[in-house]
Amino acid sequence: MAPDENVDALRQAGLRVTAPRLAALAVIAQHRHADAELITEEVRDRLGSVSTQAVYDVLHALTNAGLVRKITLDGRKSRYEISEHDNHHHILCDVCGRIENIPCVIGEAPCMMPSEDHGFAVNEAEVIYHGTCPDCREAALAQ
């Protein structure tokens, strides 16, 4: 998102436009699948002194507003990406941690239904593919 788009997006989401929110959106747009640590470092580089808790509060607000999508792929660090509302999934390299988006085959959510929904109304399915990226496969073959 461009800076003006970020201002508009925050206002449309009912959020106040603040420097930390704008900086976080810019960082997330620049570094797809960034973790909170990277986002915090980059926000500090842009704004100076900002507490870690303030960045987590910003990430929470942006996620709740639907502007940012929080994903946890490896069970450890949460990652953040700009919400594109395009129903994509992710593929994760188990060697280096590289993450790429994978479009949903069906296109609309949910792209798959569980065999038993236990009475839930299913809104979304998250699929994580695990594998080895081309660079790691090539490096392994070269050894």
Can you describe what's shown?
39% of the residues lie in helices and 19% in strands. It has helices at 3-12, 19-30, 36-47, 52-64, 134-142, and strands at residues 34-35, 68-72, 78-82, 88-93, 99-103, 128-131. Strands 1-3-2 form a three-stranded antiparallel sheet. The radius of gyration is 17 Å and the shape is globular. The termini are far apart. The model has no long low-confidence stretch (mean pLDDT 89).
Helix content: 25-40%
Helix-strand sequence: HHEHHEEEEEH
Q: What's the mean pLDDT score?
A: 89
Strand order of the largest sheet: 1-3-2
Largest sheet: 3 strands, antiparallel
Class derived from helix and strand content: alpha+beta
Low-confidence stretches: none
Number of strands: 6
Shape: globular
Strand content: 15-25%
Q: How many DSSP helices? A: 5
Based on CA atoms alone, the radius of gyration comes out at 17 Å
Terminal residue distance:
42 Å
Multimer state: single chain
